[in-house]
């Protein structure tokens, strides 16, 4: 009897943290992406960012399906997103192409991360239901990551323009409908 009650309460607790566990998987994948990028394993870094995007997509779906959305989950998701879709893609592109620009490459890499953090903070205090204000960091991070594949085909200076454009789009005031 006691064992069944214990198992039941444990399963309920696990269910309430399922979305947060997926969010932490997102964070872990983003963290590993950064570490592999620093070891010059840029293709693996790219793959880990896209896997983080999948985890990020599923954490929200799970939270809504199990009706376990919480303020903690919202904040945790943003903290993880700045790593997986802010720092990881920026480091990937910096090591892939932007470092050849020296100080401007560094500046715009950090600028992108700062705009992503600002965008997430603004999102967390807003009450916008059904739409985003500005480009979500997940979309910006995936576009920046995807652009890594174009490095052999596009002149390097276009990547500076891309990272600047994505930075400003994240902090823009336009509305995008949530999908």
Which overall shape is indicated by the principal axes computed on the Cα atoms? globular
Mean pLDDT: 91
How large is the share of residues in beta strands? under 5%
Number of beta strands: 2
Major β-sheet annotation: 2 strands, antiparallel
Unreliable runs: none
Helical percentage? over 70%
Structural class: mainly alpha
Integer-rounded radius of gyration: 18 Å
Q: Tell me the distance between the termini.
A: 45 Å
User: Helix segment count?
Assistant: 7
Order of helices and strands: HHHHHEHHE
The neighbouring-strand order within the major sheet is: 1-2
Commentary on this structure:
- Strands 1-2 form a two-stranded antiparallel sheet.
- The radius of gyration is 18 Å and the shape is globular.
- It has helices at residues 2-16, 18-38, 42-65, 71-96, 103-125, 137-147, 157-170; strands spanning 131-133, 175-177.
- The chain has seven helices and two strands.
- The mean pLDDT is 91.
């Amino acid at each position: 009897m006691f064992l069944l009650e214990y198992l039941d309460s444990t399963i309920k607790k696990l269910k309430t943290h399922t979305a947060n566990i997926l969010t932490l998987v997102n964070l872990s994948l983003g963290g590993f992406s950064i570490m592999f990028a620093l070891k010059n394993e840029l293709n693996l870094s790219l793959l880990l960012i896209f896997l983080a995007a999948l985890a990020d997509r599923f954490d929200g779906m799970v939270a809504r399906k199990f009706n376990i959305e919480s303020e903690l989950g919202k904040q945790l998701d943003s903290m993880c997103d700045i790593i997986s879709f802010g720092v990881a893609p920026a480091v990937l592109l910096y090591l892939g192409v932007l470092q050849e620009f020296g100080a401007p490459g560094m500046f715009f890499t950090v600028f992108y991360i700062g705009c992503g953090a600002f965008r997430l903070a603004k999102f967390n205090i807003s009450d916008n239901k059904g739409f985003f204000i500005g480009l979500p960091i997940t979309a910006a991070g995936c576009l920046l990551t995807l652009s890594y594949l174009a490095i052999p085909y596009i002149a390097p200076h276009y990547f500076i323009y891309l990272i600047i454009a994505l930075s400003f789009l994240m902090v823009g005031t336009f509305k995008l409908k949530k999908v």
